[in-house]
Amino acid sequence: MSAAARPPAFPVSWPVRIAWAGLALYTLYATSILNLTWARFLTGLDNGAKFLARMFPPNMAADKLDLIATGMAESIQIAVLATFFGVLLSLPLGLAAARNLAPKWLSWSARGLIAIFRSFHPVIVSILFVKAVGFGALAGILALIVSSMGFVSKLFAEVVEEMNPKQVEAVRATGASFWNVLVMAVMPQVMARFVGLSVYQLDSNLRNSTMVGIVGGGGIGAPLFTAYQRFDYDVVLTILLIIIALIMVAELVSGRIRRIFQ
To answer: Per-domain residue ranges for the chain?
Structure first.
């Protein structure tokens, strides 16, 4: 084949080029109407430096630490309870959403419910539950349960759909019931991934438990928001440092758990 007849090594894709050009034009348009300027950015850097300067050193007074410890303990309890009940409810919901196990009407109904759970941020859901059940940890737990079900059940359904169907067919060929197929063929293949998703959701709930507290869902978020409103920025820094330490410890523990079940 002559050099002129050879196809180009990197063929031109005009639809891709047009898509990138459209994205670039829309980025410029969005930047112009949102008043994103370098002057505002530089002013923000200066204000941020002043804000950080007012946060140091962190406040380690005994009364502040006692209040923070109480809030952190409540946040941990909210995260653990929300993860336990959220994962427990996500297991049947994820199985119902798997299109290779459930009939179409059931899988699409389950996926629609999951889409509703995933449509709203935990803070928004927490506001709804605060209005329904009042201020406190219950509203935060219910909000994080909804968030956990939206995340874990969706990914669990995808894990079930990606499993090896031969093991399922082999167990079905023995005349086993649907529940026996789940126990003997489905769960052994997906249990490790399900544990990994559950541990990751616990990490996520530990972070989200601080946010739902800002709107009245209990936990450390309430003292954090109160300290910010009172301009106690040194207390804010103390709370943030403790939250960072908690998340780092949780990451180490979750990593160890995931390695055990791999």
So the answer is: 72-261
